[in-house]
Amino acid sequence: MSQELATRYPLVLVPGMLGFVRLLLYPYWYGIVPALCQGGARVFPVQVSPLNSSEVRGEQLLVQIQRIMAETGADKVNLIGHSQGALTARYAAARRPDWVASVTSVAGPNHGSELADYLQRHSPAHSLRGRVLSLVLRGVSALMTLLETGYRGPKLAVDIHASHQSLTTEGVALFNRQYPQGLPQTWGGQGPEEVAGVRYYSWSGTLQPGKTNRGRNLFDGTNRSCRLFARTFVREAGQCDGMVGRYSSHLGQVIGDDYPLDHFDIVNQSLGLVGKGAEPIRLFVEHARRLKAAGV
Ligand code: CA
After folding, report:
1. How many angstroms separate the alpha carbon of residue 14 from the centre of ligand 1?
2. Is 163 considered catalytic here?
3. Mean pLDDT, range 221-249, rounded to an integer
């Protein structure tokens, strides 16, 4: 087996809101884990509460990091988080920088999601729409918990309100005040490459008519949802992946912020149905090579 992706520390993959390891046979990181393993990387897709604050999810992640370190004998891990998984990873690294070699944000709402802001304005928790939305989310999350086959561990508490607050611009601004590690100083800039011995990286995509809505995404309903969600964006109108804005995703070294990938394509969802010319798996493989070269 090739060892070109055999990073010094294991790769821990942290999912976003409503995330999972595997629903029956269907993995969250579709095709990504096998591609990394083929190159000799040790890869651990983990589960944290599908609906909760980044802090609660981050505490759950710390428990899993400890377990992975005990299992592998490694004294640190590399965290790669998708969407809210990025905030979750940032929390864990801020609390235990001694356990974390790097944090990589993949389409992470590091300055909040304008979609979450829109929902807060138009479907506040106490409104009828807010209550229906909350009921639907609770149902989806319960169903996903039933179908989850990749996570064995204690029941993970659900808090829909905290989950939502953790994703709004206001909520993330509060989070950032406490856990600023890796954030850029200026809007659209890059962040420091290393803080407290932890390396920080990010990449993200944008919706690009003619690319992201073509190819196999023609058959993917999640792409249509992203295009609909994108209409709620004001500050980063036309510059988002449907759920997260291009500049909002910046953290540490920005590897790229305009790949032709929607918010689901970027983790090769659904079933690898992505737009024309998109190669989300390649970005993970290249990143593992980058981490290995950096000695982590
Ligand atoms: Ca897709």
Report:
1. 19
2. no
3. 97
Average pLDDT over residues 220-224: 96
CB 168 within 8 A of CB 114: no
pLDDT for the residue numbered 277: 85
Residues 99-125 have pLDDT tens digits of 999 999 999 999 999 999 999 999 888
Question: 220: CA distance to ligand 1 center in Å?
Answer: 6
Catalytic residue among 49, 53, 54, 83: 83
> What is the Å distance from ligand 1's center to 217 Cα?
5
Cα of 246 from ligand 1 centre, angstroms:
18
Catalytic residue among 111, 250, 263, 287: 263
Specify whether 122 is catalytic. Answer: no
The CATH homologous superfamily of the domain defined by 11-293: Alpha/Beta hydrolase fold, catalytic domain (3.40.50.1820)
Q: What is the mean pLDDT of residues 78-103?
A: 98
Query: pLDDT band at 276, cuts 50/70/90?
Result: confident
126: CB partners within 8 A, 6+ apart: none
Q: How far is the CA of 245 from the centre of ligand 1 (A)?
A: 17
Dihedral over Cα of 101, 279, 108, 49: its sign: negative
Long-range contacts of 60-69 (CB under 8 A, 24+ apart): 60/156, 61/12, 61/14, 61/88, 61/89, 61/91, 61/92, 62/92, 62/95, 62/96, 62/99, 64/12, 64/153, 65/12, 65/92, 65/96, 65/99, 65/100, 66/99, 68/10, 68/12, 68/44, 69/99
* Catalytic pick among 82, 117, 163, 241: 241
- The residue ranges of every structural domain in the chain are 11-293
- Cα 111 to averaged position of ligand 1 atoms, centre (Å): 24
Model confidence over 180-221: pLDDT tens digits? Answer: 999 999 999 999 999 999 999 999 999 999 999 999 999 999
Residue 263 catalytic? Answer: yes
